[in-house]
Write a structure and sequence with these properties.
This protein is of the alpha+beta class and 854 residues long. Helix content is 45%, strand content 18%. The protein has a four-stranded antiparallel beta sheet, with no helix packed on it. The radius of gyration is 31 Å and the shape is elongated. The two termini are 51 Å apart.
């Protein structure tokens, strides 16, 4: 029945593809512009310092031509006035002064206030660096260490706690720009400027700086070259460079045209976009008011740090140059500036991000509704069989081995994997696929080392073994840890797909959470573990089929087909070209991922109730072993689908960067492709795959948590409780836990997390490694006792916490650190602390010997 249902769903998918046209999203404006109160200076200023302090916008200094423009021999005036705007709807406050008239310095907003760096007046350039703070209705100025040299017309940005300053000129009469590259680290107790290696390109002034993806970017600018009349002429540059702290400079893609003097530092939008507002375009000539002057571009240029592409994302309503740009009031503010050669404007513009959403459409909603209805129907189908806790928790041990194996796969393939693994491959390469190789390596260990204990001891909860091997405290510690972790995990797997889908489509985030959570509760309560397993089977088919169809769709639209796709991926290092094969504990090298992945995967496959519970739903141990091998085979082969999908997304968006949405997180890149690029109806089925990934994990967690609580706590301390009462309690627990997880997901729906995949592994390493360590300590050692095991588990948690806070390890190694600490400390403590092994102390990895309790 289940396979026929899956076949029916994909027959519908083929029909939907046949009647649907491929969607081609139109490029829409991504920013909403509005005017704020103009500066009190009716002429405006250029080259002013601009930024934010304690929530207030500050504009300080600047220049203008009060009498006549420069082409009419006007003389430039420099100002020391400071203006403050406390809120966007307010009016400017004035009456504040700089120590001297100053302009054309670098302005950077920091936690300390607005940092003003260098600058010039009519006579000279300066080294001064100071902070302007808005405190108690006034401006407070604090000096910082001066620059290593005189500097104006430079650019700068802040990456983490470090300010970087690049380029500029040393005097008003300079005939060449500089290649100065300096840094100031605020995390140091006594910060001082450091001279760093400059970029490999030509010297420059009026460049644009940006901070994004933990890197400093140096973009465009002007080079001064000797002219025929002996005066320097401007050469407008289109090159750009990226500096990652601790690494060398790398050249990135050239710009479509120069953007010299554009508002700086450029806007960082989302996790991987840089937006440049206009700038001087050296390829464009403005014949008014004087000939051969570069034109001011009205392009909103976007650079994508992952695909290394530039694209025009829209237009600037009022192009500006030689002015600052600051993030303020949930947008980007451009205060005053030069609107055409020699002419300033007092206008202050605020650009807010427009969230681009795509309507989901009735065909997509229909496909999604059919899937969800099928899942609930399966719950009703199995409700009549749930007469006892053995049926509800272990399905009467009548589940076929292949279904149990597919269920293990679907349980561990959460929405985190379904979206974040393609996103990881899209942003990096295939180094992380080695984690799936470890599942194959771990399968024989689980089959021969752990499965005999769970099957021959006939456990319902995996943690029953720990009491028999160690003591009650070990069992309760492990079960409680599992329950708490699963509650948090359920929240994450509901939150991630909902927030991603709501970001790129018209679907509401809370509606997504409520649908996934509510319907999952229904079939998990009605059908117990049997309904959970069989819905897992259908969900595995749906989610794997959905990602396979998505991959084929991209490949068929790739220039040059599969060969073109492979060439594009290889030339950008998206497979194994840039993978580090040696050992480096701070990077995702092959050895780190293999070793770390092995120990991290020990947690679910040897110590997690939701997976171990599948081991005891088959008829016998031999069939359970087949289930483990089935899961390993599916996990390994599907990894190529997930990583291939991530690489395909990279190739697609490198070809069509205008289809990207700068405001979305990297984790939402797959949903973005689904709702904007896939045919109507088929998109709904693939979204059903995202729902399936979340629901399979949620349903498994609900049933396993109910199993752990009833078996390890309620039944353990109330053995007189009837089986009917225990079954009723299990159903109520499923409902209550499901409601709690759904409500928690709604609460955190507005929380922003850079990479939920990284966060998930971090949590898993901290809370799960102690469990895997306890089982390994009990199975693979003879002398370990209960007291020592508890000490080892606590040592594992503490060590991992310290490592995560202060260590220098890649997150993949946290699992290895936790497991090995638990085993090592637990074994050593058992030799020191007085105590005796439990009756199961003589176990080997192949047999289980039953002995009466002493």
């Amino acid at each position: 029945m289940m396979t026929r249902m899956a076949a029916c769903l994909f027959s519908c998918a083929i029909l939907l593809v046949a009647i649907s046209a491929r969607a081609h999203p139109q490029v829409t404006e991504i920013l909403n512009w509005r005017d704020l109160a103009p500066l009190p200076d009716s002429r405006g200023v250029a080259g002013a310092f601009g930024g934010v302090s304690n929530g207030a916008l500050i504009v300080a200094g600047g220049t203008n031509f009060p009498d006549a423009p420069p082409w009419a021999n006007g003389k430039k005036a420099y100002y020391d006035t400071v203006y403050v705007l406390e809120k966007p709807e307010g009016s400017w406050e004035s009456g504040f002064r700089l120590p001297r008239p100053l302009a054309y310095g670098v302005a950077i907003t920091t936690e300390k206030g607005l940092v003003c760096i260098g600058g010039s007046d009519a006579e000279r350039h300066y080294r001064d660096v100071f902070v302007l703070e808005w405190v108690g209705g006034g401006i407070r100025k604090t000096a910082l260490p001066p620059l290593p040299g005189l500097c104006a017309n430079a650019c700068g940005a802040k990456v983490g706690n470090v300010i970087y300053v690049a380029g500029g000129i040393e005097s008003p009469s300079a005939t060449s720009a500089t290649k100065n590259f300096w840094s100031l680290d605020f995390s140091e107790s006594r910060p001082s400027w450091k001279v760093l290696e400059p970029w490999p390109g030509p010297e420059r002034m009026l460049a644009v700086a940006a901070a994004q993806d933990d890197s400093f970017f140096l973009i465009s600018g002007v080079r001064l070259v000797s002219g025929g009349d002996g005066k320097p002429k401007r050469e407008y540059l289109r090159d750009a460079y990226r500096y990652s702290p601790g690494k060398r400079w790398t050249r990135i893609a050239d710009l479509p045209h120069s953007v010299a003097g554009a508002p700086s530092p450029a806007a960082a939008m989302g996790p991987s976009h840089i937006l440049i507002f206009g700038g001087e375009d050296g390829s464009k000539v403005d014949f008014e008011p004087r000939d051969n002057h570069p034109g001011f571009s009205s392009d909103l240029l976007g650079y994508h740090t992952i695909t290394n592409t530039w694209t025009v994302l829209g237009a600037i309503p009022a192009p500006r140059v030689t002015t600052a740009l600051a993030s303020w009031a949930e947008g980007f503010v451009v205060p005053s500036g030069e609107v055409r050669p020699g002419v300033r404007s007092p206008k202050v513009l605020l650009a807010g991000a427009i969230r681009q959403r795509t309507g989901f459409g009735w065909l997509n909603y229909t496909a999604l509704a059919l899937y969800l209805a099928a899942m609930v129907a399966m719950g009703f189908h199995f409700v009549g069989r749930q007469k006892s806790t053995n049926q509800f928790f272990r399905a009467g041990q009548r589940v076929p081995w292949w279904a149990a194996g597919m269920s293990i796969f679907a349980t561990l393939l959460s929405s985190i994997t379904y979206m974040a693994i393609p996103a990881k491959a899209y942003a990096t390469n295939w180094a992380y696929i080695m984690n799936h190789v470890t599942i194959v390596l771990l399968a024989p260990v689980a089959i021969y080392g752990y499965l005999p204990f769970f099957r021959q001891l006939d456990v319902t909860s995996a943690y029953e073994y720990l009491e028999k091997r160690f003591n009650l405290a070990a069992r309760l510690f492990a079960s409680a840890s599992f329950i708490l972790f699963q509650i948090g995990r359920m929240t994450i797997v509901l939150y991630l797909p909902a927030i991603a889908l709501a970001t790129v489509s018209s679907m509401d985030v809370y509606t997504c959470i409520l649908i996934m959570g509510g319907l999952c509760i229904v079939y998990a309560v009605l059908g117990g573990i049997e309904a959970v397993i069989w819905t897992d089977v259908v969900q595995a088919v749906v989610l794997l089929g959905g990602i396979a169809i998505s991959l084929v769709l991209i490949l068929t639209h790739c220039e040059g087909g599969v060969a073109g796709f492979m060439q594009a991926a290889r030339s950008n290092g998206k497979f194994f070209e840039d993978v580090v094969w040696g050992w480096d504990a701070t990077q995702a090298t092959v050895l780190v991922v293999l070793i770390g992945g092995f120990f991290t995967n020990m947690v679910p496959y040897t110590a997690s109730q939701d997976v171990v519970q599948r081991y005891v739903t088959t008829k016998n141990q031999k069939l359970a072993a087949r289930a483990i091998w089935t899961n390993a085979a599916i996990s390994f082969s599907s990894a190529f689908l997930f990583f291939g999908m991530g690489t395909a997304l990279f190739v697609f968006y490198k070809t069509y960067p205008q289809h990207l949405d700068p405001s979305i997180s990297t984790d939402a890149i797959f949903p973005l492709f689904i709702v904007r690029e896939m045919p109507a109806g088929l998109a709904g089925l693939v979204v059903a795959g995202i729902f399936a990934a979340a629901q399979s994990t949620l349903a498994s967690s609900l049933n396993s948590v109910a199993t752990a609580w009833v078996t390890d706590f309620h039944r353990r301390f109330r053995p007189q409780s009837s089986d009917r009462a225990n079954l009723r309690l299990a159903r109520w627990l499923t409902v209550i836990l499901g409601i709690m997880a759904t409500a928690a997901a709604c609460v955190i729906a507005s929380v922003k997390v850079a990479s939920l995949w990284d966060m998930f592994l971090q949590i898993m390493g901290l809370t799960g490694s102690a469990l895997a360590g306890l089982f390994a300590l009990g199975i693979f050692t003879r002398r370990a006792n209960g007291r020592g095991a508890i000490v080892g588990a606590l040592a594992s948690v503490i060590t991992l916490y310290v490592a995560q806070q202060h260590g220098h390890f890649h997150l993949f190694l946290y699992g290895a650190i936790g497991v090995l600490t638990c085993v090592g400390v637990g074994y050593g403590a058992s030799l020191v602390i007085r105590g005796f092994p439990r009756p199961l102390d003589g176990l080997t990895i192949f047999t289980v010997r039953s002995r009466k309790a002493e």
